[in-house]
Design brief:
The chain has about 110 residues and is an alpha+beta fold. The protein contains 2 helices and 5 strands. The longest helix is centred in the N-terminal third of the chain and has 10 residues, at about 20-30.
Length: about 110
């Protein structure tokens, strides 16, 4: 269950867990891979997973992230970066449970 916020209801999520990614992160000592002061992994998620990309083709923001990224996120070798981190789970189904909507007022009936 995902907690409600800002007056919205809750949702039940069915997840596909990537056990291999969880084990890879544990072995790298990474754990939760979010943030690191650069707005999260969305900075690198545009890069292909597991394939080398020339550093010269990246944006300044991506290169700055790579310089500060902890072990297990990516590696840089011979002027190329390889993104290792991937999503640890995917949402298969989300079932929202919203609060019931207020009943609309009954239509006016003219008795005349």
């Amino acid at each position: 269950m995902v907690p409600a916020s800002a007056g919205f209801g809750v949702a039940e999520l069915q997840l596909d867990i990537d056990d291999a990614e969880h084990e890879r992160r544990r072995a790298a000592g990474l754990g939760v891979a979010t943030g690191y002061g650069f707005g999260g992994l969305n900075v690198l998620m545009a890069l292909p997973h597991g394939l080398p990309v020339p550093l010269a083709t990246l944006t300044d923001r991506q290169r700055a992230y790579i310089r500060e990224a902890p072990a297990g996120i990516c590696t840089v070798t011979d002027g190329q970066v390889v993104r290792h981190v991937t999503r640890p789970c995917r949402v298969r189904l989300a079932t929202p449970n919203a609060p019931k909507a207020a009943r609309p007022p009954a239509p006016c009936r003219n008795s005349a």
